[in-house]
Structures are given as C-alpha cells and as structure tokens.
Automatic annotation (TrEMBL):
InterPro entries: ARM-like, ARM-type_fold, PP2A_B56. Coiled coil: none annotated. PANTHER family: SERINE/THREONINE PROTEIN PHOSPHATASE 2A PP2A REGULATORY SUBUNIT B, SERINE_THREONINE-PROTEIN PHOSPHATASE 2A 56 KDA REGULATORY SUBUNIT GAMMA ISOFORM. It comes from the Eukaryota. Belongs to the phosphatase 2A regulatory subunit B56 family. It holds the Pfam family B56. It comes from Bos indicus x Bos taurus (Hybrid cattle). The B regulatory subunit might modulate substrate selectivity and catalytic activity, and also might direct the localization of the catalytic enzyme to a particular subcellular compartment. GO terms for biological process: signal transduction. One of its GO terms (cellular component) is protein phosphatase type 2A complex. This is Serine/threonine-protein phosphatase 2A 56 kDa regulatory subunit. GO terms for molecular function: protein phosphatase activator activity. Its main location: nucleus. It is found in: Nucleus.
Length: 496
C-alpha cells in the first residue's frame, strides 16, 4: 500500500516506503518493447506518474524517484507527439486520472490577500515548487488534446463539467507559468468539446461576478479575458441576447475594480471585439465607460482614454453621433486636468485621422463643447507640452471651419463679458449690504465691542458687519483674480 502524508494541501507519497502497484521504479522505454506491449507499458507509466512528491518541506528528498517521474513524463510527451494511433480508448481514463491527481489541488493562501494591485516591477509572483513535474503534465495533456488521434467523443466521458470546474479553480494560481498553460488548455477544451462551451462561459461569468462584487482578488482574470477574446471573435451573427448581457453586466463592470491595470488590455480587446460584431452596442458601452469614469485615479483615467480611442477607431459614424456630446464633455474635462498625462492623452486624439474626420463632420456640435477648455488652458496649464498640444488642436479646429471658430471665439468673449457684468453687480450688491449694515443701530455698538472681544451672540435685524466685510473681501479677491487671468489669456490667444 502507498503511505501518504499531508504536505500543505497536497497528498505526498514517500517513495522510499512505497510498495504498492504505483511504486516509482524505472521502467523500460516504450520504444524498447514490442508494439503489442506498448499500450500496457504506456498505462503503467501513466499510473507511475500518479505518485506525488514533496517539493516544499523537503525539496531534496527522493531525488532519484523525482527524476524517474520526470523522465517518464518527458518520454510520454515525445511518445504521443511523434507516434500515431497510440491514443487508444483505454488510455483516456488513465490520462485524465493522472492529470487530475497531479493538478487538482487546494491552492496555498494568497501572498496578497488584500487584493492590492500587483506591480510586475516590484512584486515577485509565488512560484509553484513542484513545477518541474507540473509543467510536463501540462505539456503531455496539451499534446494529447492537440493530437490528430484525439477523439472528443471518447474523452467526453472523462473530461466533463466537474473536470472543467476544477480546472477553472486553478486559474487563481499565483504562478504565471501555470496560468499560461491553463489558458491554452481551457481554450483547447472549449474548441474540442461543443457540449461544454455554454458551461465554461457560465462558470467564467461566476468567477467574474465573485471578483467584482465580493473578493476583488483573483490572479487569473487577465488569462480568462484572453480566452474570452478568442471566444467572442468566434461568435456567430447576429449576437445572442446572452452574449449582449455578458458584455453589459459582466465585462463593463470589470472597469470598476481597483486592480484594473492588471487585466485592462485584455478587457479592452474583448469590448472592442463586441463592437466590431455589433455596432449598435456602442452607445451603451460608451455611456457605461463614462459612468465608471475615475474621478481621482489619474493612471486609471489614462487607461480609460486608451480604451475609448480603441472604440472610436472602430465606431460607425451613425453611432458616433449618438454619443459625441457626453463623450466630448468628458474629454473637455480631461483636457483641463492638472495631471499632465491625462491632458496629454486626451489631446493625442487630435493626432488620430479617423477621429478627426468624425470631429470634422460634427464640428458644429463638438467645437462649442471643447473650445472653452482649450482656450482657458492654452496658457494657464502648468505643463509646456500641453500648451503645444492645445495650440495644435485649436489650429486644426480653425482650419476645419474658420467661421465656426470665430463664432466660438466671439461667444466665449461674450460669456466673459457676462461674467464681468455679474461681478460688477455682485460688487454693487455688497456695497448695498455694507451700507445696510452701517445703517443698523447695532453697527456702532458692534464695531466698538469687536475691538475688545468677540461677541458670542447678538440679536440684530441686519447682517453682522464683520461677516459682511470678510465675505465681501473674499469674493472680490477671487473675482478680480479670475478676471485678470482670463483677460491675460484672451490677449495672448489673439496674438497667436
């Protein structure tokens, strides 16, 4: 019998004391036995590889038997790769069992349980100690799935929903090498087993739901999204309602999670794939992005701008008209951002020829939205690079429609004049309030008392003089500074 003990969460066999049928002994090479005996020896080697070894608590133990298992796995990889008609029906249950024994295990506790954003430059991933064996098991299973002799109709008895669910649980492994193999393995299973496709999509949805609304921590989101990118690319048209719901209820809410940077390129690819399939989804997608737009996280805002440009690259002109006003209101805010990378990324849109053609066709709506932000920041933004990009955008708008540009300039000046008039009215109103305060019988008493002590409370029919003076001074200073800045900007822009 095999004697087993726990190491972490895996069953580990002490090879030195093993005397059961799966004792790791050096068997003959498959190629060295007659063809009639090769299947039997193949099965013996598969069973031999079901023995697990301790790579964690005692990595130097059983080195001889670890090498025997590694050599057997390596030999079987070569055997099914270079030989035909060797994957017979009795092999299927043995292969699936060997894979399950080696792979399906409880993963160790996360080294990053809080779900903080993983930084590839600073953080080192936790690597699987038993990888010398696990890698070969993955390679063997993949070669089996990719073999011309592989028969899904036989394998489906063993590669079932339970198998897929256990495979998906491994995507939370912290070892990027394992996740990469899992990604390829699941993709091959999705392609070979039509009956499992809906189940795979459903279980991936469940992983995403838990990630978004419960844990906010999962190591394999990027890999799962990469698989989905290929799956979405193969969706038939017209898109099924369940696929549209998946986009709106699962993919788009993934933008809310704080660790977005870890998987954003794959997520953006999936979203763009959907829009290439069905352009009518553009409006709900863009409106959702604007809804989830980050308010205080500038690097995340740059990611949103990147994704939005990818969407605009594939947008239909008829769909652009539906979203251009809220979209450019957000871009106007980005241009005014004090974070120069956000402003810079937004202004790079004016270097995109297709986006410029869309803007040109709808300049009458877009220029009035963008002009105030561009005008105000043309000199007031602290970063010199932004000044040049803004002048470039204004120049393009001017060349696009000179009359419209002049109209926007005049309208902007008129708005500034209105602000000046409002400031003057405010000034006059404060003078009236001050005069009313002075006319109050309590004014003289309060003025004398305020030089001695601060009154706790006072019954009065008018505003307190000190409050009026302080508020009037603050408003006047802010108004004068605002008008001064805008007047300087106006003169400088006219020179340009």
């Amino acid at each position: 019998m095999l004697t087993c003990n726990k190491a972490g969460s895996r069953m580990v066999v002490d090879a030195a004391s093993s005397n059961g049928p799966f004792q790791p002994v050096a068997l003959l090479h498959i190629r060295d036995v007659p063809p009639a005996d090769q299947e039997k020896l193949f099965i013996q080697k598969l069973r031999q590889c079901c023995v697990l070894f301790d790579f964690v608590s005692d990595p130097l133990s059983d080195l001889k038997w670890k090498e025997v298992k590694r050599a057997a796995l390596s030999e079987m990889v070569e055997y099914i790769t270079h030989n035909r008609n060797v994957i017979t029906e009795p092999i299927y249950p043995e292969v699936v069992h060997m894979f399950a024994v080696n792979m399906f295990r409880t993963l160790p506790p996360s080294s990053n349980p809080t779900g903080a954003e993983f930084d590839p430059e600073e953080d080192e991933p936790t690597l699987e100690a038993a990888w010398p064996h696990l890698q070969l098991v993955y390679e063997f299973f993949l070669r089996l799935l990719e073999s011309p002799d592989f028969q899904p109709n036989i394998a489906k008895k063993y590669i079932d929903q339970k198998f897929v669910l256990q495979l998906l649980e491994l995507f939370d492994s912290e070892d990027p090498r394992e996740r990469d193999f899992l990604k390829t393995t699941l993709h091959r299973i999705y392609g070979k087993f039509l009956g499992l496709r809906a189940y795979i999509r459903k279980q991936i949805n469940n992983i995403f739901y838990r990630f978004i609304y419960e844990t906010e921590h999962h190591n394999g989101i990027a890999e799962l999204l990469e698989i989905l990118g290929s799956i979405i690319n193969g969706f038939a048209l017209p898109l099924k309602e369940e696929h549209k719901i998946f986009l709106l209820k699962v993919l788009l809410p993934l933008h809310k999670v704080k660790s977005l940077s870890v998987y954003h390129p794959q997520l953006a690819y999936c979203v763009v794939q959907f829009l290439e399939k069905d352009s009518t989804l553009t409006e709900p997608v863009v409106m959702a992005l604007l809804k989830y737009w980050p308010k205080t996280h500038s690097p995340k805002e740059v990611m949103f701008l990147n994704e939005l440009e990818e969407i605009l690259d594939v947008i239909e002109p008829s769909e652009f008209v539906k979203i251009m006003e809220p979209l450019f209101r957000q871009l106007a805010k980005c241009v005014s951002s004090p974070h120069f990378q956000v402003a810079e990324r937004a202004l790079y849109y004016w270097n995109n020829e297709y986006i410029m053609s869309l803007i040109s066709d709808n300049a009458a709506k877009i220029l009035p939205i963008m002009f105030p932000s561009l005008y105000r920041n043309s000199k007031t933004h602290w970063n010199k690079t932004i000044h040049g990009l803004i002048y470039n955008a204004l120049k393009l708008f001017m060349e696009m429609n000179q009359k419209l540009f002049d109209d926007c300039t005049q309208q902007f000046k008129a708005e500034k004049l209105k602000e000046k008039l409002k400031m003057k009215e405010r000034e006059e109103a404060w003078v009236k309030i001050e005069n009313l305060a002075k006319a109050n019988p309590q004014y003289a008493v309060y003025s004398q008392a305020s030089t001695i002590s601060i009154p706790v409370a006072m019954e009065t029919d008018g505003p307190l003089f000190e409050d009026v003076q302080m508020l009037r001074k603050t408003v006047n200073e802010e108004a004068r500074q605002s008008v001064g800045r805008k007047a300087v900007s106006s003169v400088q822009l006219r020179k340009v």
